[in-house]
Amino acid sequence: MAMTARLRAVPTEDTNTVQFQLLFPAPRDDQAGACGPASLQTGDGAALELGVICAPTMDTWAAGHTLALAEHAYGGAGPFVATLSWGDLLTSAIVEEADPDLSSMDTYPVLMGFKVWTSPDKPLEIALEIGLDQVKEWHRVRIDGGAGNIRWWNPLDGEADAQSARGEWRVSYRKPGPARVYVDLMDVEDYLISRLGVFPLDVASPLEDSAGTNLAQPPAAGLISGAIAPPVEVEAINANL
Q1: Alpha-carbon span 2 to 35, nearest angstrom
Q2: d(CA 201, CA 194)
Q3: Which among 60, 78, 117, 238 could bridge 202 via Cys, Cβ 3.0 to 4.6 Å?
């Protein structure tokens, strides 16, 4: 299986020190993640042996899309070119004094609504509704509810003049318990651009008394603030209240 990943160097709070990270694309199938030995040439003469690295699977990618490899202190500001060897893959990153300025990048969509509900006769099946604003034609969204519930969404779907979009999906779970729904903006090569939201769910047991409920969407201020913002987490939602 061919390795696919990107190397990234992220400056830390310490002078001339970076953390190297390996970014994985979201898998499109349920095959096991590729594994192989990895080593890193930092670009200033140092070499780091990183052991065996395994890519995440389709089910583990949402939590494991980025792997912290190591930190390295340079003798100067650079720039340097670091190169990672992982199995049959060679990938490089430029080490600079500071993170690149992302403020001029294209606008990301804003998550404006998230609803869940169930029906009394199907307590392990949950309906999701997601609303986005400031949507552009290139935006692609991956929705991962866990347990193999993964959906890919092109919000505008050819409607180039629209600025908002709303989608609805049904996801099924094999057993009750906690779950999470991740809403991620992806690039054309299936790498994460920005995590738009993270929503814990409480999937109730079919044996519990459930009347099916429409839950009011959280206020927009509780979902997202700014186009390039940390992922949002809300309180766990009981989908069978």
Answers
A1: 10
A2: 21
A3: 238
- List, for residues 112-163, the tens digit of each pLDDT value: 999 888 877 888 899 999 999 999 888 999 999 998 899 999 998 767 677 8
Give Cβ neighbours of residue 15 (< 8 Å, ≥ 6 apart): none
The number of residues in the chain equals 241
Q: What is the pLDDT of residues 16-70, one digit of tens each?
A: 899 999 999 999 887 778 899 999 999 999 999 999 999 999 999 999 999 999 9
What CA–CA distances, in Å, run from 130 to 134, 145, 191, 210? 14, 13, 21, 23
Strands (E), 100-139: 110-119, 122-133
**How far separated are the first and last CA of the chain, in Å rounded?**
45
Measured between alpha carbons, how far is 47 from 50 in angstroms, rounded to an integer? 10
Q: Which residue's entry shows tokens 């651009």? A: 193
Residue 74 · residue 45 · CB < 8 Å: no
- Contact at 8 Å (CB) between 186 and 26? yes
Distances (CA, A) of 217 to 82, 110, 115, 241: 45, 14, 5, 15
Q: How far apart are CA 156 and CA 153, in angstroms?
A: 9
User: Helices in 53-204 by DSSP H: which ranges?
Assistant: 61-64
